[in-house]
Amino acid sequence: MNDSRFSNMVARLIEETARGRMAWRLSEPPRSITIGTEDIVGLYFEGVFKGTKFSIYEVRYKHFQDEDIYYWNSTIVLAVVDNDDRVLWTQNNYREINELYDDVRRKASGVDRLLDYFR
Amino acid sequence: MIALWIGSRSMGYKAAFYGAVGLLIVAVAVAWNLDVWGSKSFWDEANKYGLFFTIFGTLFTVGTFFYVGMFGEKLKRRHRIPETHKDLQQLLIEIRQCLKDWKGRENDIIDLLYQVQGHLENVSQKLDGVEKKSANQLVSSIAREGVFYIGRRKLTEEVSWDIQRKLQKFVTQLGAKHQDNEVERL
Questions:
Q1: A111 — contact with chain B (CB < 8 Å)?
Q2: According to the model, what pLDDT value does residue B14 have?
Q3: Among B157, B168, B175, beta carbon nearest to A11
Q4: Per-domain boundaries in chain B
Q5: Does B49 score more than 70 pLDDT?
Protein backbone atom coordinates (compact mmCIF):
# COMPACT_ATOMS: atom_id res chain seq x y z
CA MET A 1 0.00 0.00 0.00
CA ASN A 2 1.27 3.48 -0.87
CA ASP A 3 2.38 5.67 2.00
CA SER A 4 0.83 9.09 1.53
CA ARG A 5 3.62 10.82 3.48
CA PHE A 6 6.10 9.39 1.03
CA SER A 7 4.20 10.83 -1.96
CA ASN A 8 4.21 14.22 -0.24
CA MET A 9 7.94 13.98 0.41
CA VAL A 10 8.76 13.10 -3.20
CA ALA A 11 6.48 15.89 -4.42
CA ARG A 12 8.55 18.24 -2.27
CA LEU A 13 11.78 16.89 -3.76
CA ILE A 14 10.29 17.51 -7.22
CA GLU A 15 9.55 21.12 -6.23
CA GLU A 16 12.99 21.72 -4.74
CA THR A 17 14.63 20.22 -7.84
CA ALA A 18 12.49 22.25 -10.24
CA ARG A 19 13.22 25.48 -8.38
CA GLY A 20 16.95 24.75 -8.36
CA ARG A 21 17.16 24.60 -4.59
CA MET A 22 18.24 20.98 -4.61
CA ALA A 23 21.17 19.98 -6.80
CA TRP A 24 21.69 16.43 -8.04
CA ARG A 25 25.09 15.10 -9.01
CA LEU A 26 25.70 12.25 -11.42
CA SER A 27 27.97 9.69 -9.76
CA GLU A 28 28.99 6.07 -9.73
CA PRO A 29 26.62 3.68 -7.98
CA PRO A 30 28.04 2.25 -4.74
CA ARG A 31 29.24 -1.34 -4.83
CA SER A 32 26.63 -2.37 -2.29
CA ILE A 33 23.95 -1.93 -4.98
CA THR A 34 25.73 -3.70 -7.83
CA ILE A 35 27.58 -6.51 -6.09
CA GLY A 36 26.11 -10.02 -5.97
CA THR A 37 23.28 -9.31 -8.40
CA GLU A 38 22.60 -9.48 -12.12
CA ASP A 39 20.68 -6.22 -11.97
CA ILE A 40 22.04 -3.37 -14.03
CA VAL A 41 22.10 0.09 -12.51
CA GLY A 42 21.61 2.91 -15.03
CA LEU A 43 22.20 6.57 -14.29
CA TYR A 44 22.81 7.18 -10.59
CA PHE A 45 22.26 10.63 -9.07
CA GLU A 46 22.86 11.95 -5.56
CA GLY A 47 21.45 15.03 -3.85
CA VAL A 48 21.03 16.43 -0.35
CA PHE A 49 17.81 17.74 1.17
CA LYS A 50 17.52 18.88 4.79
CA GLY A 51 20.77 17.11 5.71
CA THR A 52 19.67 13.77 4.24
CA LYS A 53 21.54 12.32 1.31
CA PHE A 54 19.22 10.92 -1.34
CA SER A 55 20.04 8.95 -4.42
CA ILE A 56 17.86 8.14 -7.38
CA TYR A 57 18.67 5.56 -10.02
CA GLU A 58 17.24 3.19 -12.56
CA VAL A 59 17.57 -0.55 -12.01
CA ARG A 60 17.09 -2.95 -14.89
CA TYR A 61 16.34 -6.46 -13.74
CA LYS A 62 15.35 -9.84 -15.14
CA HIS A 63 11.70 -10.60 -14.62
CA PHE A 64 11.34 -14.36 -14.71
CA GLN A 65 8.14 -15.84 -16.11
CA ASP A 66 9.45 -19.37 -15.86
CA GLU A 67 12.74 -20.99 -14.85
CA ASP A 68 14.42 -20.10 -18.16
CA ILE A 69 12.06 -17.52 -19.59
CA TYR A 70 12.55 -13.92 -18.59
CA TYR A 71 12.32 -10.43 -19.93
CA TRP A 72 14.11 -7.28 -18.88
CA ASN A 73 12.17 -4.82 -16.82
CA SER A 74 13.16 -1.62 -15.10
CA THR A 75 12.20 0.43 -12.10
CA ILE A 76 13.27 3.74 -10.64
CA VAL A 77 14.51 3.63 -7.07
CA LEU A 78 14.76 6.45 -4.55
CA ALA A 79 17.17 5.69 -1.73
CA VAL A 80 18.58 7.28 1.39
CA VAL A 81 22.33 6.77 1.66
CA ASP A 82 24.80 7.59 4.41
CA ASN A 83 28.10 9.44 4.04
CA ASP A 84 29.92 6.19 3.27
CA ASP A 85 27.49 5.57 0.39
CA ARG A 86 25.77 2.69 2.11
CA VAL A 87 22.16 2.36 1.05
CA LEU A 88 20.05 2.63 4.18
CA TRP A 89 16.56 2.65 2.70
CA THR A 90 14.98 2.30 -0.72
CA GLN A 91 11.58 2.84 -2.24
CA ASN A 92 10.23 2.30 -5.75
CA ASN A 93 6.99 1.87 -7.68
CA TYR A 94 5.74 5.38 -7.09
CA ARG A 95 4.57 7.60 -9.91
CA GLU A 96 6.22 10.59 -8.26
CA ILE A 97 9.63 8.84 -8.22
CA ASN A 98 9.49 8.40 -11.98
CA GLU A 99 8.59 12.07 -12.36
CA LEU A 100 11.49 13.08 -10.10
CA TYR A 101 13.92 10.89 -12.05
CA ASP A 102 12.87 12.53 -15.34
CA ASP A 103 13.33 15.98 -13.79
CA VAL A 104 16.74 15.10 -12.36
CA ARG A 105 17.95 13.79 -15.72
CA ARG A 106 16.61 16.87 -17.45
CA LYS A 107 18.42 19.16 -14.99
CA ALA A 108 21.63 17.14 -15.20
CA SER A 109 21.61 17.17 -18.98
CA GLY A 110 21.38 20.96 -19.09
CA VAL A 111 18.79 20.67 -21.85
CA ASP A 112 16.83 23.59 -20.35
CA ARG A 113 19.70 25.99 -21.07
CA LEU A 114 19.81 24.71 -24.61
CA LEU A 115 16.05 25.10 -25.03
CA ASP A 116 16.21 28.62 -23.59
CA TYR A 117 18.65 29.46 -26.37
CA PHE A 118 15.89 28.67 -28.89
CA ARG A 119 13.15 30.51 -27.01
CA MET B 1 -49.50 -7.87 -18.04
CA ILE B 2 -49.45 -9.29 -14.51
CA ALA B 3 -48.75 -12.72 -15.97
CA LEU B 4 -45.81 -11.25 -17.94
CA TRP B 5 -44.46 -9.48 -14.87
CA ILE B 6 -44.74 -12.62 -12.76
CA GLY B 7 -43.16 -14.69 -15.53
CA SER B 8 -40.08 -12.50 -15.47
CA ARG B 9 -39.63 -12.79 -11.67
CA SER B 10 -37.60 -15.35 -9.73
CA MET B 11 -39.12 -18.39 -8.00
CA GLY B 12 -39.22 -16.57 -4.64
CA TYR B 13 -41.34 -13.76 -6.09
CA LYS B 14 -43.66 -16.23 -7.77
CA ALA B 15 -44.16 -18.21 -4.54
CA ALA B 16 -44.87 -15.02 -2.56
CA PHE B 17 -47.30 -13.70 -5.19
CA TYR B 18 -49.29 -16.94 -5.52
CA GLY B 19 -49.31 -17.34 -1.72
CA ALA B 20 -50.74 -13.82 -1.25
CA VAL B 21 -53.39 -14.37 -3.94
CA GLY B 22 -54.40 -17.67 -2.32
CA LEU B 23 -54.71 -16.12 1.12
CA LEU B 24 -56.84 -13.30 -0.30
CA ILE B 25 -59.21 -15.77 -1.98
CA VAL B 26 -59.58 -17.78 1.24
CA ALA B 27 -60.24 -14.62 3.30
CA VAL B 28 -62.89 -13.37 0.84
CA ALA B 29 -64.57 -16.81 0.74
CA VAL B 30 -64.72 -17.04 4.54
CA ALA B 31 -66.05 -13.49 4.88
CA TRP B 32 -68.66 -14.09 2.16
CA ASN B 33 -70.13 -16.97 4.07
CA LEU B 34 -70.20 -15.15 7.36
CA ASP B 35 -72.94 -12.72 8.15
CA VAL B 36 -70.55 -9.95 9.02
CA TRP B 37 -71.08 -7.35 6.35
CA GLY B 38 -74.00 -5.68 8.04
CA SER B 39 -72.52 -5.98 11.53
CA LYS B 40 -71.51 -2.69 13.18
CA SER B 41 -68.99 -4.38 15.48
CA PHE B 42 -67.20 -5.86 12.46
CA TRP B 43 -66.76 -2.43 10.90
CA ASP B 44 -65.62 -0.95 14.24
CA GLU B 45 -62.94 -3.65 14.48
CA ALA B 46 -61.98 -3.18 10.83
CA ASN B 47 -61.65 0.59 11.43
CA LYS B 48 -59.27 -0.02 14.34
CA TYR B 49 -57.06 -2.27 12.22
CA GLY B 50 -57.32 0.14 9.33
CA LEU B 51 -56.17 3.03 11.48
CA PHE B 52 -53.29 0.98 12.87
CA PHE B 53 -52.07 -0.06 9.42
CA THR B 54 -52.45 3.48 8.07
CA ILE B 55 -50.19 4.89 10.82
CA PHE B 56 -47.74 2.01 10.44
CA GLY B 57 -47.70 2.40 6.65
CA THR B 58 -47.10 6.14 6.87
CA LEU B 59 -44.19 5.70 9.29
CA PHE B 60 -42.76 2.94 7.12
CA THR B 61 -42.99 5.15 4.02
CA VAL B 62 -41.28 8.07 5.75
CA GLY B 63 -38.54 5.72 7.03
CA THR B 64 -38.03 4.24 3.58
CA PHE B 65 -37.90 7.70 2.03
CA PHE B 66 -35.09 8.80 4.38
CA TYR B 67 -33.25 5.51 4.01
CA VAL B 68 -33.30 5.75 0.20
CA GLY B 69 -32.08 9.35 0.43
CA MET B 70 -29.19 8.34 2.70
CA PHE B 71 -28.32 5.39 0.53
CA GLY B 72 -28.32 7.58 -2.58
CA GLU B 73 -25.99 10.05 -0.90
CA LYS B 74 -23.64 7.23 0.09
CA LEU B 75 -23.63 5.93 -3.47
CA LYS B 76 -22.85 9.39 -4.81
CA ARG B 77 -19.91 9.71 -2.38
CA ARG B 78 -18.55 6.32 -3.32
CA HIS B 79 -18.59 7.11 -7.01
CA ARG B 80 -17.72 10.79 -6.98
CA ILE B 81 -14.69 10.62 -4.64
CA PRO B 82 -12.60 8.15 -6.70
CA GLU B 83 -13.52 9.96 -9.93
CA THR B 84 -12.54 13.35 -8.52
CA HIS B 85 -9.39 11.86 -6.99
CA LYS B 86 -8.32 10.61 -10.41
CA ASP B 87 -9.09 13.94 -12.09
CA LEU B 88 -7.24 15.94 -9.44
CA GLN B 89 -4.22 13.64 -9.63
CA GLN B 90 -4.04 14.30 -13.36
CA LEU B 91 -4.47 18.05 -12.87
CA LEU B 92 -1.75 18.02 -10.22
CA ILE B 93 0.70 16.47 -12.69
CA GLU B 94 -0.24 19.06 -15.32
CA ILE B 95 0.15 21.93 -12.85
CA ARG B 96 3.60 20.67 -11.85
CA GLN B 97 4.62 20.38 -15.49
CA CYS B 98 3.58 23.98 -16.05
CA LEU B 99 5.36 25.13 -12.91
CA LYS B 100 8.59 23.53 -14.04
CA ASP B 101 8.46 25.73 -17.14
CA TRP B 102 7.14 28.70 -15.26
CA LYS B 103 8.14 31.41 -17.74
CA GLY B 104 5.24 32.19 -20.03
CA ARG B 105 2.91 29.52 -18.67
CA GLU B 106 1.14 31.56 -15.99
CA ASN B 107 -2.11 31.57 -17.96
CA ASP B 108 -2.01 27.78 -18.35
CA ILE B 109 -1.61 27.47 -14.60
CA ILE B 110 -4.54 29.80 -13.95
CA ASP B 111 -6.73 27.73 -16.29
CA LEU B 112 -5.73 24.55 -14.51
CA LEU B 113 -6.31 26.11 -11.09
CA TYR B 114 -9.85 27.09 -12.09
CA GLN B 115 -10.47 23.49 -13.14
CA VAL B 116 -9.18 22.36 -9.76
CA GLN B 117 -11.45 24.86 -8.05
CA GLY B 118 -14.48 23.47 -9.88
CA HIS B 119 -13.68 19.93 -8.83
CA LEU B 120 -13.07 21.02 -5.24
CA GLU B 121 -16.34 22.94 -4.95
CA ASN B 122 -18.19 19.92 -6.28
CA VAL B 123 -16.52 17.28 -4.12
CA SER B 124 -16.48 19.33 -0.91
CA GLN B 125 -20.28 18.84 -0.63
CA LYS B 126 -19.68 15.12 -0.39
CA LEU B 127 -16.94 15.35 2.23
CA ASP B 128 -16.84 16.02 5.93
CA GLY B 129 -14.23 16.56 8.64
CA VAL B 130 -10.60 17.21 7.74
CA GLU B 131 -11.06 16.65 4.00
CA LYS B 132 -13.90 19.18 3.75
CA LYS B 133 -11.85 21.75 5.66
CA SER B 134 -8.82 21.21 3.39
CA ALA B 135 -11.00 21.46 0.27
CA ASN B 136 -12.52 24.73 1.45
CA GLN B 137 -9.11 26.17 2.38
CA LEU B 138 -7.75 25.26 -1.02
CA VAL B 139 -10.77 26.75 -2.79
CA SER B 140 -10.39 30.00 -0.89
CA SER B 141 -6.68 30.19 -1.59
CA ILE B 142 -7.24 29.60 -5.33
CA ALA B 143 -10.11 32.08 -5.38
CA ARG B 144 -7.94 34.66 -3.67
CA GLU B 145 -5.32 34.21 -6.36
CA GLY B 146 -8.08 34.63 -8.93
CA VAL B 147 -9.08 37.96 -7.42
CA PHE B 148 -5.43 39.02 -7.33
CA TYR B 149 -5.11 38.13 -10.97
CA ILE B 150 -8.22 40.04 -11.98
CA GLY B 151 -6.86 42.98 -9.98
CA ARG B 152 -3.75 42.73 -12.21
CA ARG B 153 -1.64 41.32 -9.41
CA LYS B 154 0.18 38.50 -11.09
CA LEU B 155 0.14 34.99 -9.75
CA THR B 156 3.69 34.44 -8.54
CA GLU B 157 5.77 31.29 -8.85
CA GLU B 158 6.03 31.10 -5.06
CA VAL B 159 2.24 31.21 -4.57
CA SER B 160 1.67 28.66 -7.34
CA TRP B 161 4.08 26.20 -5.78
CA ASP B 162 2.38 26.76 -2.43
CA ILE B 163 -1.03 25.93 -3.96
CA GLN B 164 0.51 22.89 -5.63
CA ARG B 165 1.77 21.70 -2.24
CA LYS B 166 -1.69 22.14 -0.69
CA LEU B 167 -3.26 20.34 -3.62
CA GLN B 168 -0.81 17.46 -3.24
CA LYS B 169 -1.82 17.19 0.42
CA PHE B 170 -5.52 17.26 -0.46
CA VAL B 171 -5.15 14.61 -3.17
CA THR B 172 -3.42 12.41 -0.61
CA GLN B 173 -6.26 12.95 1.86
CA LEU B 174 -8.85 12.19 -0.79
CA GLY B 175 -7.05 8.98 -1.72
CA ALA B 176 -7.04 7.91 1.94
CA LYS B 177 -10.75 8.74 2.20
CA HIS B 178 -11.46 6.60 -0.83
CA GLN B 179 -9.53 3.70 0.71
CA ASP B 180 -11.47 4.11 3.97
CA ASN B 181 -14.74 3.96 2.02
CA GLU B 182 -13.61 0.79 0.27
CA VAL B 183 -12.73 -0.85 3.60
CA GLU B 184 -16.11 0.21 5.03
CA ARG B 185 -17.85 -1.31 2.02
CA LEU B 186 -16.07 -4.65 2.50
A1: no
A2: 80
A3: B168
A4: 81-185
A5: yes
Contacts with A86 (C-beta within 8 Å, 6 or more apart), sequence order: A30, A32
Arithmetic mean of pLDDT, A90-104 = 91
Report the SS3 class of residue A47.
Answer: strand
A8:B100 CB<8 A: no
Report ipTM (2 d.p.).
Answer: 0.75
Domain that holds residue A8: 4-117
**Contact criterion met (CB < 8 Å) for B164 and A15:** yes
Whether B163 and B142 have beta carbons less than 8 Å apart is answered as: yes
Report the alpha-carbon distance of residue B69 to residue A92 in Å, rounded: 43
Find which of A5, A6, A8, A21 to mutate to test the B interface (most B CBs within 10 Å of its CB): A8
* Residue of chain A with shortest Cα separation from B161: A15
Q: Is A99 close to B93, i.e. CB distance below 8 A?
A: yes
Helix axes A4-18, A95-109, angle to 10 degrees: 20
Inter-chain contact B100–A18, Cβ cutoff 8 Å?
Answer: yes
Domains in chain A, number: 1
pLDDT greater at residue B3 or residue A14 = A14
Q: What pLDDT does B154 receive?
A: 65
